[in-house]
Specification:
Layout lengths: L4 E4 L4 H17 L3 E7 L7 H28 L4 E7 L2 H9 L4 E6 L5 H6 L1 H8 L4 E5 L9 H5 L7 E4 L5 H16 L3 E7 L10 H11 L5 E7 L2 H8 L5 E6 L4 H6 L3 H8 L4 E5 L6
Parallel strand pairs: 1-2, 1-4, 2-3, 4-5, 6-7, 6-9, 7-8, 9-10
Antiparallel strand pairs: 5-10
Helix pairs in contact: 3-5, 5-11, 7-8, 9-11
């Protein structure tokens, strides 16, 4: 894994928003950027036709790449722009093996077909590195100041953790973001059983985080209810919501009610999905 921020771009407003976030994050990390535009494989088998198609696609992307590269240079970030053959999902999953962070935008979607075909859902399940999914917020849509100020976790990095080995990875990724940006880290667990006598398992992890990230303000909060609903509600104004993934995708992800997949569909805040053992891939 390399220290590169990978961004999927297609010229849409959603991808521009993701590219802006990724550029700022790359500047904060001191990492270079790779802007990737996926070019669907042409159905024509003629090599000359295919070459002409790819050349035309590259030329069409040049204005978009020029704007993205200029924004990166303004922040002192080195950027590479590439057009690659394949679907957006396949291209970004493949490139994620050589990246430290994968970033995509999220379009407002609804219904079964969009969940099965969502690029962000595929990346959350199969990316080799953490994936940040940035929701698009049209200029005319925003939160009233009063509503934001009443949100308990407004501006926090929120880590949604559950028992298991992924808890440490999720908290470490969240703590790294919070310290880098000078934000508060809030760890959440959701008890769906109604048993209030269970031991708050993230406490030990937070002690480790406190030693590893001195000066970081962090806290632990326990909720009850349906995990995806409760987390989406309390983290709706978070700077970033950090979750783990069990690797579910497509229909199996819906059947097993994967919390990370549900949050990708319903959370209004940016979501960072940390794959299990991401640091070892």
């Amino acid at each position: 894994m390399e220290n590169v921020v990978l961004v999927g771009v297609d010229g849409s407003a959603e991808s521009r928003e993701a590219a802006g976030w990724a550029t700022a994050e790359a500047a904060a990390r001191g990492w270079p950027l790779l802007f990737a535009n996926a070019c669907p494989q042409p159905v024509v088998a003629d090599p000359l036709v295919e070459a002409a198609y790819l050349l035309a696609t590259g030329r069409a992307a040049e204005p978009m790449f020029a704007d993205l590269a200029a924004a990166a240079r303004a922040l002192g970030v080195v950027a590479e722009c590439r057009v690659l053959r394949g679907s957006a999902s396949d291209v970004l999953v493949r490139l994620s093996a050589r990246a430290g962070l994968n970033v995509v935008g999220r379009r407002p979607r609804a219904g079964l077909p969009s969940r099965l075909g969502s690029v962000s859902s595929t990346l959350a399940a199969h990316s080799h590195c953490p994936t940040a999914v940035i929701p698009y917020r049209p200029p005319s849509v925003g939160h009233r100041d009063g509503a934001v100020s009443r949100s308990m976790f407004a501006g926090h990095v929120v880590a949604a953790v559950e028992p298991g080995p992924s808890a440490s990875e999720v908290l470490t990724a969240a703590a790294d973001l919070a310290q880098r940006h000078g934000l508060v880290l809030s760890a959440l667990t959701v008890d769906s059983t109604g048993d209030r006598d269970h031991v708050p398992y993230p406490a030990g992890h937070l002690t480790r985080i406190g030693r590893q990230y001195p000066g970081l303000e962090c806290g632990f909060h326990s909720l009850s209810g349906r995990p995806s609903h409760e987390i989406a509600q309390v983290a709706r104004h978070a700077w970033m919501l950090v979750v783990g993934t069990r690797g579910f995708s497509g229909l199996s992800g819906i059947v097993h009610a994967s919390v990370s997949q549900a949050l990708l569909q319903h959370a209004s805040s940016p979501v960072l999905v940390v794959p299990h053992a991401a640091s070892e891939r």
